[in-house]
Amino acid sequence: MRENLFIALEGIDGSGKSTQAKLLSQRLISMGHKVYTTFEPTDSPIGSIIRNIMKGRINCDHKTIAGLFVADRLDHLLNEVNGIVKKIEEGYTVITDRYYFSSYAYHGTHMNMDWVINANAMSAEILRPDINIFIDVLPETSMERLNNNRSIIELYETLENLQNVREKYFEAFDKLKLEENIFITNGNLSLDEVSNNIWNEIEKILKREKSYA
Length: 213
Ligand code: ADP
Ligand code: TYD
Fold this sequence. Notes:
CATH superfamily: P-loop containing nucleotide triphosphate hydrolases
Helix content: 55-70%
Number of helices: 10
CATH topology: Rossmann fold
Number of domains: 1
Strand content: 5-15%
Shape: globular
Radius of gyration: 17 Å
Largest sheet: 5 strands, parallel
CATH class: Alpha Beta
Low-confidence stretches: none
Strand order of the largest sheet: 2-3-1-4-5
Bound molecules: adenosine-5'-diphosphate, thymidine-5'-diphosphate
Order of helices and strands: EHEHHHEHHHEHHEH
Oligomer: single chain
């Protein structure tokens, strides 16, 4: 069993994913792990089309957006220069800010979720996260954080949509609870409390993997 983990952080916009990715990475590095942090949508050419859609510069149907995320995710995994698969093979623990559960929740809000899950089957086959960490914040709180910190509010960042997305996350977790390792943590707590709760869960996995090694 490998000791380097593949960790996916999930949550609605403004839930604290990128903040927690940084804190988790610092803890792992201080323990001697090699860590690679990454995110979706990626900064590849496909990711850049997606960001232009999110910012309202390109108009696109939700189904097309779902398809673009499938392609962006496969490149995220398989890219020969900095793909996740390569990083895992090199012994890095990879922390990604969003992975396929984001697609299930965000696109499942606008179309049949099973289609989205099936369309992402190749990614799940290539690499399933050792843990999907869902940082659960109230959509009202996340909208407040976004309004305080952002000059542009993006396509999916309305209170009503984030409420629907949060519900879809729970629907997806229920659907896939047998195949996926899912940890739900309260994101309405302070930065340090959220970070400690995530760390306790990661430590459990690390200890388990050590005892199998
Ligand atoms: P995401 O990556 O999920 O969009 P961020 O990590 O960028 O979220 O956090 C969004 C904003 O909320 C940032 O300004 C961040 O400092 C703040 N924030 C994150 N976590 C917390 C928390 N637990 N309590 C209060 N503010 C937070
Ligand atoms: P992101 O930059 O992570 O936004 P934030 O930091 O605010 O959480 O993601 C941009 C948007 O892309 C976000 O609204 C969620 C959406 N998204 C999807 O719709 N499908 C996906 O598969 C992913 C990964 C993201």
